[in-house]
Specification:
single chain; 144 residues; alpha+beta; disordered N terminus
Length: 144
């Protein structure tokens, strides 16, 4: 009876949850970076940081229209085809669960290095980037 119950529980659980195992016992917990450290790291690492909107949701590479550029060579009005990624947000099961789809009308700030990726920066990191003057707010700067 116990074996049947365990089998039923395993079958009713989604595959990604089964594939995501905890770290081995004794593995130290990683110390997460502070918001300031995350903001600085993202600002330094990224070749491009831009605000925009998803204008089409075709497949794994939606179309993203640039509205404001904080860093890099992108231009307002330009439409790019970024790939969907988890971006800078840690995921408990990397490689096991696909990133969230991009829906038409979704908007936010993306940051990437070299190849466009569609993963919006978290609001707290973005606020830190503005307050630390790592990027200049669209309201304070003329659009490039």
């Amino acid at each position: 009876m116990l074996i049947r119950l365990a089998a039923l529980l395993l079958l009713s659980t989604s595959a990604p949850v089964l594939a995501c195992l905890p770290p081995p016992p004794g593995t130290p917990e990683p110390v997460p970076p502070t918001k300031a450290e995350r903001a600085q790291s993202i600002a330094r690492w990224s070749s491009d940081i831009a605000y925009g909107i998803v204008v089409s949701e075709t497949g794994d590479e939606p179309r993203f229209k640039i509205i404001h550029v904080y860093k890099g060579a992108l231009k307002p009005g330009q439409v790019i085809r970024p790939k969907l990624t988890w971006g800078f947000e840690p995921h408990p099961c990397p490689g096991m669960v696909p990133p969230h789809p991009a829906f038409k009308g979704s908007y936010g700030v993306i940051a990437y290095r070299d190849e466009p990726e569609l993963s919006f920066l978290p609001e707290d990191v973005l606020k830190e980037m503005f307050s630390a003057r790592l990027i200049e707010s669209a309201q304070a700067a003329p659009n490039r």
